[in-house]
Amino acid sequence: MISKNRTSAFPASSQAFTLVEMLVVIAIVALLVAVLLPSLAQGKLAARTALCFANERQQHLAFALYANDFRDVIPPVGTTYNYMAGSRGAAWYHYLGKTGGYMTDRTEVFAGKVFGYGGSRNKVFKCAAESGSRKAGMEGITYFDSELADSSYVMYWQVSAYHYYEGYMDQYYPMWQYFRRGFSKGGDNNIAPGNTYFVMDGPDWGVSWLLPYFVWDIDNPARFDGFYDYSFRHLGKSTNMLFLDGHAAPAKHVNDTGKPLWQTVWKRCPNWYWMTCDNGCIYAGGSWGL
Questions:
Q1: Which residues pair with 73 in a beta bridge?
Q2: Would you call 219 helix, strand, or coil by DSSP?
Q3: In a domain, 233, yes or no
């Protein structure tokens, strides 16, 4: 007969953690979490950075296809506020996307998150590392999700200079003057395409005066905090820069490197053989006053 009062072969004290042992385990787990979480966060940001680089290379392919169809020209920087082909926007990325159809993905018409206006965008113009604006009226909204922009990226202003978009200053500029020739060759100021900054992550514009390009004030330290710092959102406070030859690489602000990001790639405005172009356009020794 088996006794009902049989005792365990192991004493109860050996079957459970003591309080000290439990605290030790908790401390080890907490230490591992503290060590691993930053690494996981860095890995996540690295993946987003890699996706952003891939998007920029896709953009360059679209530029190349566009140039092949239109005698080696680059679309003008354009504007986000004009209507083109039935929906909002006439920026450089609209020439490649909704108007030109040079993107691999289908152009999406969407309801913007700022005012609810209709916008049009392509996913290749979305930077996965974009966290959302800090500006009033735009808090937490990315520029890809804003119908005032439709894109996370901006293009180098001097591609068009003051020839912003078709219809701008028509009394001076024929339509063909808005398109810069020389996509495959680069500028005329001894800066090779492989060294020519072309497209980068966009700044924190806010709701008003939102532009699809970056200009010479990118090197102004006073314009960094709260504005251009938003562009340098990748690992090591860098921006993803697409160069005119098609390669993409991280670039840092002049505050960190001492190397300006603003360049004078072209000596003249697009196709204006008698106009010079640096920070502005000069004609016959005087400024246009634009």
A1: 181
A2: helix
A3: yes
The dihedral through the CA atoms of 65, 69, 72, 77 has a sign that is negative
pTM recorded for the entire structure: 0.79
Q: Is residue 71 domain-resident?
A: yes
Domain containing residue 87 = 42-287
- Lowest-pLDDT choice from 11-20, 30-39, 88-97, 245-254: 11-20
* Burial grade of 195 (CB within 10 A; 0-12, 13-18, 19 or more): middle
For residues 283 and 59, give the distance between their C-alpha atoms in angstroms, rounded to a whole number: 34
**What is the percent of the chain where pLDDT is above 70?**
78
At 188, the pLDDT band (50, 70, 90 cuts) reads: confident
pLDDT-derived band at 286, boundaries 50, 70, 90: very low
* Total domains present in the chain: 1
Look at residue 68 and tell me if it is in a domain.
yes
d(CA 236, CA 49): 11
> What six digits make up the tokens of 202?
């966009």
Q: Could you tell me the two tokens for 6?
A: 């049989």
